[in-house]
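Researcher: I've got a protein sequence and the SMILES for NAP. Could you write out the 3D structure of the bound complex as structure tokens? I'd like something to compare against our soaking experiments later this week.
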Amino acid sequence: METRYCMITGGNTGLGYACARKLLATGNYYITLACRTADKAQRAVQNLKTENPSCAHLIEYLTCDLSSPESIHSFVRSYKELGFPLHVLLNNAGVYPGSKRETTEHGTELAFAVNHLGHFLLTSLLLDLLEASGTGRIVNVSSELHRGAPSSPEFPPTPEEYTAKTAYATSKLANILFTYALSPRLKTTTVNSCSPGWIPSTELSRHAPFPARWIMQTILPYLPVARTVEQGAVVCCRLVMDEDIRGVTGKYMGKDGEWIPSSEQSYDVNMQKRLWEVSSELQLRGLW
Ligand SMILES: NC(=O)c1ccc[n+]([C@@H]2O[C@H](COP(=O)([O-])OP(=O)(O)OC[C@H]3O[C@@H](n4cnc5c(N)ncnc54)[C@H](OP(=O)(O)O)[C@@H]3O)[C@@H](O)[C@H]2O)c1
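Model: Sure. Here is the predicted complex with NAP in place.
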């Protein structure tokens, strides 16, 4: 099989790391981790190389902070300077925000900025490479928690309606609305979204108060409904690799690797259009 070039956002830990590990082990993918924190990324790359020495030449990282348009532009410039093609974009990075509303440098609510806007810009800047590959695949990692978004969410969420839960749910709904709106705009690339299931062992709860975080990461992983990062990675990697779904686009996959319906509101074309317009406008201004 010809080497396929795959980019994973937030691949230094959690689900993204497990996906990188699984894809690397096949020997069929050249993987670029797009990571905010350079020292964590370096460690992740080193661990992956040590674990899989025969594939050590197939993994690297470049820094990219998805809360910053400048950082995303610079990341894409660096990648394009390498002269590599791109076959797969796994938009995995994400934050579950804290109870106190945080914003980017320019005042945009953080979860919406990182989970949606950063990936919206990154995807648009990489579409030329993905389309040129002729067999591109984009995977947007969402969550079943998208079903908890307000019935008519503000994009980005305003301070008045802020709770961590609604901000996260809105950003995860945005992942799916974006998937459905992008799919008909593509020529040769497919785009799908998924939920990896509930994986309490990752660092996603890092902004929660200490006791809750501790319970989440040390006790809840033993509950029967909890999944491991490896189980979550199976779903994401199915969308990246599997031949039986080649050509399928604009769909949502559940934790068991089957296509399932997303929330009713995610199919609302007016909401998809509204999100697209807001995101394009913010992208044009280059500030969020
Ligand atoms: N865990 C679950 O139960 C669950 C369930 C459904 C969906 N998901 C989704 O799965 C994805 C991965 O989450 P996870 O559970 O693996 O959480 P995680 O362990 O916290 O990993 C999140 C990743 O995103 C990166 N990231 C955060 N802010 C970033 C930024 N501004 N720019 C670039 N990268 C950034 C983190 O990098 P740093 O480490 O450098 O901050 C980290 O690599 C997310 O999209 C999440 O919504 C998770």
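Model: The longest strand covers residues 29-35. The mean pLDDT is 96.
Researcher: Great, I'll pass this along to the crystallography team.
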